[in-house]
């Protein structure tokens, strides 16, 4: 049995500072929605059980959802910074492109070979939208962390 010590490629969701700020802003607005509805429901002169129920359910959804969105923004931004700091430029060559859906625009399953200096080439499969540049042989820009094979396709 042959085992490989090479890390499996992992795609990094790139998020710039403005995107992270917007996501955290939405999270900061979502978190207090539930508690605000619940506080208003409690402070009503004659609170009805439906208003209390809506406030409770809104709190149960908005607080964990907002916290999760905040953490996701932080995690994605940290991954982007790490990749920008240690990543090397690479080329992702499209090997095959198969149309998988054409409802609201075209979605393709694209198999690419990512290669560059400082790491062993590897293949990845992605679901991508659009049609320009997705034919076999097309070359896209990529950024790869040679230490753990995390990557981002830049085009």
Entry keywords:
single chain, 155 residues, alpha+beta, 6-stranded mixed beta sheet, 41% helix
Structural summary, described in words:
- This protein is α+β, with helices and mostly antiparallel strands and 155 residues long.
- It has three helices and six strands.
- The protein has a six-stranded mixed β-sheet, with helices on one face.
- β3 and β4 form a beta hairpin.
- α1 runs antiparallel to α3.
- The longest helix is centred in the middle third of the chain and has 38 residues, at 49-86.
- It is elongated and about 70 Å long.
- The protein starts with 9 loop residues before the first strand and ends with a strand.
The parts where pLDDT drops under 50 for at least 5 residues are: none
Give the overall silhouette: elongated
Q: Let me know the largest β-sheet.
A: 6 strands, mixed
Oligomeric category: single chain
Number of strand segments? 6
Helix tally equals 3
Estimate what percentage of residues fall within beta strands. 25-35%
User: How are strands sequenced across the largest beta sheet?
Assistant: 1-6-5-2-3-4
Distance between the termini: 38 Å
User: Which percent bin holds the helix content?
Assistant: 40-55%
How confident overall, as mean pLDDT? 86
Secondary structure class reads alpha+beta
Element pattern in H and E: EHHHEEEEE
Radius of gyration: 22 Å
